[in-house]
Amino acid sequence: MKDLASNVNPKRVISPVSTSSDSAVVGQIIDRAGFDSLTYVIAAGSIGDADVTFAVLLEESDASNMDGASAVDDKDLIGTEALAAFKFDSDDQVRKLGYVGSKRYTRLTITPAGNSGTPSAALLSAVAILGHPALAPTANPPA
Fold it and tell me: What pLDDT digit, counting tens, does each position of 69-124 carry?
């Protein structure tokens, strides 16, 4: 059997959150240093609003504070931001979005539209999976 656990480093992007407005949910900045691949995994729990949509945006930068950040070009994505998006009938589903660009830092943002929280809020979370490490095995628990 192949060992994946020793060759990945998961990072928290968006802790599980309940959102009932149209405010953007901005993820943690992810540093790719020491890793050659990056995939974001986004999970939705219960989505209570009957007409809400969730747009996904991935930004990139060479600056650790995301100064001068720009939206990632489609050619630097595996999958699309549209495929990673959710809507009102996406309860308990998972999406993935891969990054193959050259920038060191990335940031994921999920922005609801039409989210009144009626009859209830939406539950979201996201993690980044850094892979193809320069040094393996990776630490456990992850660093």
Answer: 999 999 999 999 999 999 999 999 999 999 999 999 999 999 999 988 777 789 99
Q: Report the run of H or E that residue 54 belongs to, with start and end.
A: strand 53-61
Read out DSSP for 88-140? TT-TT-EEEEEE--S-SEEEEEEEEES----S--EEEEEEEEEEEESSSSPPS
- The per-residue pLDDT for 116 is 85
Contact of 8 with 116, CB cutoff 8 Å = no
- Cα dihedral 2, 8, 46, 92, rounded to 10, equals -30
Right CATH for 5-132 from 2.60.120.620, 2.60.120.1110, 2.60.320.10, 1.10.357.10: 2.60.120.1110
Q: CA 143, CA 136: separation in Å to the nearest integer?
A: 13
CA nearest neighbour of 97 among 128, 51, 122, 134: 128
